[in-house]
Write a structure and sequence with these properties.
There is one protein chain. The chain is of the alpha+beta class. The chain contains 5 helices and 5 strands. Strands 1, 2, 3, 4 and 5 form a 5-stranded mixed beta sheet that branches. Helix 5 (146-150) links the parallel strand 4 and strand 5 (161-185). Helix 2 crosses helix 3 (52-60). The radius of gyration is 18 Å and the shape is globular. The N and C termini lie far apart (49 Å). The relative contact order is 0.19.
């Protein structure tokens, strides 16, 4: 009897998480290409104002991938979704989505944005030629926090990609295993 109750409880958790993510994912996707382009441009301008290291990276980057709004929710099982823009030489080169799934101790919902500066041809090529970039597989991505960004200079560049997270809102407690995949989408 306990096995049936446990299975039912797990199924309910999965179903509730799926429902939360499906309703929230509509908030993470832009209504139009123009909206996505506008919000990505604003996100870049804001991160340059608040973080000089990001602006310095932009001058050296081969491409910049901007996800202005990612929505994340979870309760044991969780996930996130958002859409973004790839810029090369200041021009829109394509559109991508960021999808993640997680499992473990977690509860809550949050939204945030992130920018990935692709620093070399290897990272750009990997993004363009694969059917999705799994973060943690392929080129090295370094997440820049405030402390790392303060000690950063353009002469210390050695990694394939640098990521900055911004505009975190909401509350998400988490101790979980997570995987993120970035894939090209047609808009």
């Amino acid at each position: 009897m306990k096995t049936i109750q446990r299975t039912l409880a797990q199924f309910t958790l999965v179903l509730a998480t799926f429902f939360m993510l499906s309703t929230m994912s509509s908030y993470a996707s832009a209504a139009t290409v123009e909206d996505l382009n506008r919000s990505s441009t604003l996100a870049l301008q804001n991160i340059y104002k608040t973080n000089p290291a990001a602006e310095a990276l932009s001058r050296k980057a081969k491409a910049i991938l901007v996800f202005p709004n990612i929505v994340k929710a979870g309760f044991v099982f969780g996930g996130s979704y958002g859409e973004g823009v790839l810029y090369k030489a200041g021009q829109v080169e394509g559109y991508y989505n960021s999808v993640s799934a997680s499992w473990g101790w977690q509860a809550g919902a949050e939204s945030y944005g992130y920018v990935v500066f692709l620093m070399n041809d290897k990272a750009v090529s990997y993004l363009e030629k694969t059917k999705g970039w799994e973060v943690g597989v392929g080129p090295t991505v370094v997440a820049m926090n405030e402390g790392a960004a303060k000690n950063f200079s353009s002469t210390t560049l050695k990694d394939d990609a640098y990521a900055f997270i911004f505009d975190q809102q909401g509350l998400m407690a988490s101790l979980s295993i997570e995987g993120t995949k970035i894939s090209r989408i047609k808009r």
